[in-house]
Every structure is written in structure tokens, then in C-alpha cells.
Amino acid sequence: MAAEFAGIEARAEVCGGAACIVRTRIPVWVLEQARRLGTSEQELLGAYPGLRAEDVENAWVYARLHGAEMEAAIGENEGV
User: Fold this and answer.
1) H-helix or E-strand spanning residue 45
2) For residue 36, with 0-12 CB atoms within 10 Å meaning exposed, 13-18 middle and 19 or more buried, which class applies?
3) Which of 2, 49, 66, 70 could pair with 10 in a Cys bridge, judged by C-beta atoms 3.0 to 4.6 Å apart?
4) Which domain holds residue 17?
5) What is the total count of domains within the chain?
6) 8 pLDDT more than 80
7) Bridge partners, 40 (sequence order)
């Protein structure tokens, strides 16, 4: 599923198969939840040194197009 999105990949052996930013183990749902909680893009880039602005933009596109997946992942991982 994530293979069609530039900069996003999902592999069963990485983060339980969650869609992640390539070159990292940062799940898209983590970035989306941080954004929902008010974290700015600049704060995310500072918190994750390997993350690029392009990665964040790719994450927002992916999250927008996969809302149900984001809701499920956030719910599972945040105990909601």
C-alpha cells in the first residue's frame, strides 16, 4: 500500500508493518499524532534529525489519504 507513495514504505519487519518514512523507523502515524497535538513542522524536524521537510510533506499526504489507517494506528498505540 505505501509503496505507491514517494518517501513512505511499509515493511512487515519494520515497526510492525506501519507506514514509515523511508531511511527511518518513524511511523507516519507518530508524526500525524504529533501534529494533532500541536507540534509544528519545525519542532518535528528538530526532534528527528534524520527527517527532512520533504519527508514531513510526504507524511501529511499519506495521512490525509489514509485517514482510517491513521485513526486505527493512533488508537492502538495511544490506548484510545
Assistant:
1) helix 41-47
2) exposed
3) 2
4) 2-78
5) 1
6) yes
7) none
Q: Please report, for residues 4, 16, 17, 27, 53, the alpha-carbon distance to residue 44 in angstroms, rounded to integers and kept in the order given.
A: 24, 22, 22, 13, 9
φ, ψ (nearest 5 deg) of residue 9: -140, 155
The count of C-alpha atoms lying within 13 angstroms of the C-alpha of 19, restricted to the half-sphere facing its C-beta, is 28
* Dihedral angle sign, alpha carbons of residues 47, 53, 12, 39: positive
Q: Can you give the pTM of this predicted structure?
A: 0.89
With beta carbons less than 8 A apart as the criterion, state whether 11 and 17 touch: yes
Residue 5: predicted pLDDT = 82
Convert the pLDDT of each residue in 31-67 to its tens digit: 999 999 999 999 999 999 999 999 999 999 999 999 9
Q: Which residues contact 36 (CB under 8 A, 6 or more apart)?
A: 74
User: The domain that contains 8 carries what CATH number?
Assistant: 1.10.10.10
